[in-house]
Each structure stands twice: as C-alpha cells, then as structure tokens.
Design brief:
1 helix; globular; OB fold (Dihydrolipoamide Acetyltransferase, E2P); mainly beta; 128 residues
C-alpha cells in the first residue's frame, strides 16, 4: 500500500517481494541511452492477483554492438514474449499486451544508497 507524504506530495511504494510474477507488456519503445546509444525502454504491469497487481515495472536494453548483455537480455525478453528472434526486425506494437512471466528481485539503488529498486532479472514464457 502506498504511503503518501504531504511534503512534496510524493507516494512511496514498498519494494516488490522477490518472486516470479505474471506481467503484461504495456510499452516497448526505441530511444537513446544517456550515452546516446540505442536503447529499448520496456514498461510492464503486474497482472497476478495480490498486493502488487497493477504495479508497473521498468527495464532498459542498450542494444549497441559494444553491449552484448543488453542484446542478450532483449533477446530473452522477445523470446519469452513469443516474438520471432530469428527475424532481422520486429514491430514493437506486436508485443504490446502480451502476458509473460518476470523474475523480480529487489536491489539497492546505486544512485540512492538505502533505497531499493525492483529489478527484473529474467523473462519466461507464460506457456511454461
């Protein structure tokens, strides 16, 4: 349950407990990273019943040639979402609305020590 503070009118959300959650792809957009590299920004929403239903999670995939981890993670996501990873290109609109599973773990925010981030570690097909 969010806690609201009057000062600054901010809502603080408790970190999501580690686990595997059903998520729906809300958006996948191609943009640029802070270092001007091509990057996909992903937004998913938890669809499992429970205290986290409706909570949004975010992930970024830097996909330049010097960042194989980003390309590998994007391929894992696309495969779990049912996209044809052997194709040279894909339409992000084809993935929106897809339901899959995501392994989530809290992680300390390197920019704000003591604060927790909800980090997506891996994606799985909803058919597994």
């Amino acid at each position: 349950m969010p806690r609201f503070t009057v000062e600054g009118l901010t809502a603080e959300l408790e970190p999501i407990a580690a686990g595997i959650y059903g998520v729906r792809v809300d958006s996948l957009d191609l943009t640029k990273s802070s270092t001007n590299k091509p990057m996909y920004k992903l937004r998913v929403v938890i669809v499992d019943d429970g205290p986290y239903m409706g909570r949004a999670l975010y992930d970024n995939f830097v996909v330049d040639r010097e960042t194989p981890v980003g390309r590998r993670r994007l391929a894992n996501f696309l495969k779990a979402a049912g996209a044809d990873v052997s194709a040279d290109s894909f339409d992000t609109a084809d993935i929106e609305g897809t339901v899959l599973r995501a392994s989530v773990e809290p992680e300390e925010d390197p920019r704000n020590p003591g604060e927790q981030l909800d980090r997506i570690r891996r994606y799985f097909s909803n058919k597994q």
